[in-house]
Design a protein that fits this description.
single chain, 211 residues, alpha/beta, Rossmann fold, 7-stranded mixed β-sheet, two-stranded antiparallel sheet, 7 helices
Length: 211
């Protein structure tokens, strides 16, 4: 890709420096993937659109007053590392924390964070064992069904916090199942990178009262 003074990535206009860092992240994922399995082999062929542009769309839904973003099950850095790269340019006050229990993936995240000079916090731990993180935004991608994600996110989300969960073509089934146990406000945004997929924006979520 030719790097001009500004580039559009997933509909977001970014600087040449930010675009270069996204390209470097792409290269690092390709380099590490054969040994650490950060993304599926099938999606690796279309990594830029399937993972980077998809993560850019998540970042675009960050509330304007958010200061703390927690990415659960960060894996290959999607969306967490992409969020951190974009935030350095357009949201410098946004603190990004990556949570990853897999030791090898955590090593990848740490090394790429250092290589890119990102001020990103990394927690190598199971989500369930962490103290409350008081996040304004929680993201998670390809981690668990929606109902389980809400259970993982609830202890770490501020009362006015937002959850941003990219989901595949069966997202409506996950929403229906989750509503059996949870009450929540939901906005659904069609995915810009995957047909029939969507980004779920969830607020004001709590356990449903028994009927």
């Amino acid at each position: 890709m030719t790097i001009a003074s500004r580039q559009s990535v997933g509909g977001l206009d970014v600087s040449r420096e930010t675009f270069a860092q996204l390209c470097e992240l792409e290269a690092e994922v390709r380099r590490w993937n054969p040994t650490v399995n950060l993304v599926s082999r099938g999606s690796l062929e279309d990594l830029w659109r399937r993972h980077i542009e998809d993560s850019v769309q998540v970042f675009a839904h960050c509330p304007s007053d958010a200061t703390r973003w927690i990415d659960l099950g960060s894996g290959g850095g999607f969306p967490g590392l992409v969020v951190a790269i974009l935030a350095r340019e357009s949201r410098p006050g946004l603190q990004v924390t990556l949570v990853e229990s897999d030791q090898r993936k955590s090593v990848f995240l740490r090394q790429v964070t250092q290589k890119l000079g990102l001020e990103t916090k990394l927690l190598t731990s199971r989500i369930e064992s962490l103290p409350p993180l008081e996040a304004d935004v929680i993201s998670a991608r390809a981690l668990a069904p929606l109902g389980q994600l809400l259970a993982l996110a609830r202890p770490h989300t501020r009362p006015d916090g937002t959850c941003l969960f990219p989901k595949g073509a069966r997202y409506s089934e996950e929403v229906t199942e989750a509503r059996k146990s949870w009450d929540f406000d939901l906005d659904v945004t069609p995915s810009l990178s995957q047909q029939d997929a969507a980004l779920l924006t969830i607020r004001k979520f709590h356990r449903a009262k028994p009927s």
